[in-house]
Task: inverse folding
């Protein structure tokens, strides 16, 4: 039997919400729908909800088991270990992509002459320390970081409102590209990023009350996260206009730069960058910790330090060598990764695993 109630439902909710914000606040998602990007985010959120509920059913018949163990039950010990290792590599790779997002954010804005390896190395050290402390401190810190994150976002909204730079006319025409543009934006991109990446939380079932809590908390996080991401998209659109949103590398940062109240309250860039870094730190930490859990299960080892070293060094190395520049990095992340990596790992394998679990359970019940 595995440990239970290590983290509370609210702590898990905070982790999930910060995770969803993560790099989705840096990259402007849903731009295939242009002025209707904010609608596409809501549609993507609604489409993902039943999938998340479905995946939590993996634990219905085996509530005390970990996700790697579920894979072994479904596919057999050898194949289950191989699939678990694929998830470890997946978590490392996507964690590295998110880390690269935030390294490039700092390099483009405030640390232009600093080598990538230095920026990435410092951020990795902080992430490694969080993972070294294990899940309880990560969960407690997530609550505080979420309060700071949401508080700053709300503050920025009011500052933009009183700066009189938001123009509702930028929302029009709604659905100018047709309803098909909404679904082109949703699939595969919005469905897989950021919502589909919630598959990482299947690794955390062992620390909470069980599959019902995971489903309940996850559903709330997806709904609230989806609504807030849609609102951020709408704020970007009404402040900048569609043309500037599309041409900006980091639209939210450009939006915050528009704050100017009587030439007194302005230059909020540093505050915005700090908040964005909070989301990125939380997301990479969760991916890294999930990878550590997978390695410890595969090799049946309690050596947390060795697993931690392997995962964090792999993330940093992948971050440094994955692409030559930020534009190429974004192109790979938004066009290639969703189709060829996200869909198999986020949807295909969990659905096949659930089918295998159900078939084996029925076979077992018939034989008894």
Result:
């Amino acid at each position: 039997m595995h440990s239970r109630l290590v983290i509370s439902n609210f702590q898990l909710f905070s982790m999930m919400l910060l995770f969803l914000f993560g790099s989705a606040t840096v990259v402007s998602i849903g731009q295939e729908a242009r002025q209707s990007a904010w609608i596409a985010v809501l549609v993507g959120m609604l489409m993902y909800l039943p999938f998340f509920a479905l995946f939590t059913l993996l634990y219905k018949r085996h509530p005390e088991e970990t996700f790697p163990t579920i894979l072994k039950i479904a596919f057999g010990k050898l194949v289950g270990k191989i699939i678990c290792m694929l998830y470890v590599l997946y978590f490392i790779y996507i964690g590295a992509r998110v880390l690269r997002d935030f390294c490039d954010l700092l390099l483009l804005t405030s640390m232009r002459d600093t080598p990538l390896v230095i920026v990435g190395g410092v951020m990795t050290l902080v992430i490694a320390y969080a993972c070294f402390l294990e899940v309880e401190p990560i969960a407690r810190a997530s609550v505080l970081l979420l309060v700071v994150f949401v508080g700053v976002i709300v503050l920025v909204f009011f500052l933009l409102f009183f700066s009189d730079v938001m123009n509702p006319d930028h929302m029009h025409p709604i659905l100018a590209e047709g309803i098909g543009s909404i679904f082109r934006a949703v699939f595969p991109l919005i469905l897989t990023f950021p919502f589909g990446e919630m598959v990482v939380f299947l690794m955390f079932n062992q620390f909470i009350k069980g599959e019902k809590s995971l489903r309940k908390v996850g559903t709330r996080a997806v709904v609230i996260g989806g609504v807030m991401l849609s609102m951020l998209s709408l704020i970007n659109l009404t402040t900048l206009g569609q043309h500037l949103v599309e041409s900006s590398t980091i639209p939210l940062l450009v939006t915050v730069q528009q704050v100017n109240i009587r030439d007194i309250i302005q230059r909020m860039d540093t505050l915005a960058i700090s908040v964005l870094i909070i989301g990125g730190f939380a997301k990479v930490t969760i991916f890294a910790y999930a990878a550590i859990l997978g390695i410890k299960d595969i090799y049946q080892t309690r050596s947390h330090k060795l697993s931690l070293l392997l995962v964090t060094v792999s993330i940093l190395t992948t971050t440094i060598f994955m692409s030559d520049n930020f534009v190429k990095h974004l192109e790979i992340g938004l066009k290639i990764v969703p189709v060829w990596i996200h869909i198999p790992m986020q949807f295909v394998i969990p659905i096949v695993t659930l089918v295998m679990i159900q078939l084996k359970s029925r076979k077992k019940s018939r034989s008894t």
User: Anything to note?
Assistant: The mean pLDDT is 91. The chain is about 75% helix and 0% strand. The chain has one domain: 9-333+342-358.
